[in-house]
Design brief:
Layout: E1 4-9, E2 12-17, H1 18-27, H2 56-59, E3 63-71, E4 78-84, E5 106-107, H3 110-120, E6 125-131, H4 139-153, E7 158-162, H5 167-171, H6 175-182, E8 186-189, E9 210-213, H7 214-220
Helix pairs in contact: 4-6
Bound molecules: iron/sulfur cluster (SF4).
Iron/sulfur cluster (SF4) is lined by residues 46, 87, 89-91, 94-96, 100, 132-134, 164, 191-192.
InterPro entries: Aldolase_TIM (IPR013785), NrdG (IPR012837), Organic_radical-activating (IPR034457), rSAM (IPR007197), rSAM_sf (IPR058240)
Biased composition (Basic residues): 33-44
Protein name: Anaerobic ribonucleoside-triphosphate reductase activating protein
């Protein structure tokens, strides 16, 4: 064995003889330097359906996530709120992620509908709110309740609905969605967009969403915002 030479590789010290060192330097290839590729992450956003791609007739299971009578947060005045189950938009940061599942909660029932109609009869109750989940992907449930409310109370109670659809998207949608839209008073439209989140807004979570006066918008053919909008 020849003269030992002290070498340091990646901080480790070792001793090799001159002959071995010469052989290794001839035969060894330098390890290819691992290319550091910076991963560019595309920010994930909500899904964007084609017109009539998502149909309540195919998706809805007729389930509801919750019913909250006499609350003050789901629209103007005291309201009875029905949270339907199932939504396809999958907005990151969704306020009610469990209700994205169409089988979450319990089946909507005649007994519950009776209860909601009775609750709405209270003088202090201004109206019904539909949210979820996605009300426009549960039109069977929502239209049943809407029609019963109108048959019982006419226009003395108002109807609000939230939706992930934008107003213009809904105009190209299936007949059941258009029917439901024509029977409500106020629509809060659009996906929840996390980068536009603003907790100071009235009744909505991100600044792209709008509170729309449905009757006036349908009458004029353009979006008319709710008259009591402050922010
Ligand atoms: S539209 Fe509403 S319920 Fe549906 S994922 Fe978005 S925030 Fe959640």
């Amino acid at each position: 064995m020849g003269e030992q030479i002290r070498i340091t590789i990646n901080g480790d010290t070792d001793f090799v003889d001159q002959k071995t060192l010469n052989q290794q330097s001839k035969t060894s290839e330098k390890p290819a330097r691992r290319q550091r590729t910076r991963r560019t992450r595309t920010p994930r956003g909500p899904k964007n359906p084609q017109p009539k791609e998502w149909l309540a007739s195919e998706l809805s299971q007729g389930y509801i996530a919750d019913y909250k009578p006499f609350n003050f947060v789901d629209g103007e005045g005291v309201r009875c709120s029905l949270y339907v189950s199932g939504c396809m938009f999958a907005c990151p940061g969704c306020y009610n992620k469990v209700a994205q599942q169409f089988h979450y909660g319990r089946p909507y029932s005649k007994e519950l509908e009776d209860q909601i109609i009775a609750d709405l009869g209270q003088d202090f109750c201004q109206g019904l709110t539909l949210l979820g989940g996605e009300p426009f992907l549960n039109t069977q449930v929502c239209l049943s309740l809407i029609d019963r409310l109108r048959a019982t109370y006419g226009d003395t109670k108002d109807i609000w609905s939230w939706t992930g659809y934008q107003w213009d998207e809904l105009q190209q949608e299936s007949a059941d969605k258009l029917e439901m839209l024509s029977k409500i008073d106020v629509l809060v439209d659009g996906r929840f967009m996390e980068p536009l989140k603003d907790l100071t807004l009235q009744f909505r979570g991100s600044s792209n969403q709008r509170i729309i006066d449905v009757k006036r918008s349908l009458a004029t053919g353009e979006v008319v915002l709710w008259k009591n909008l402050v922010k």
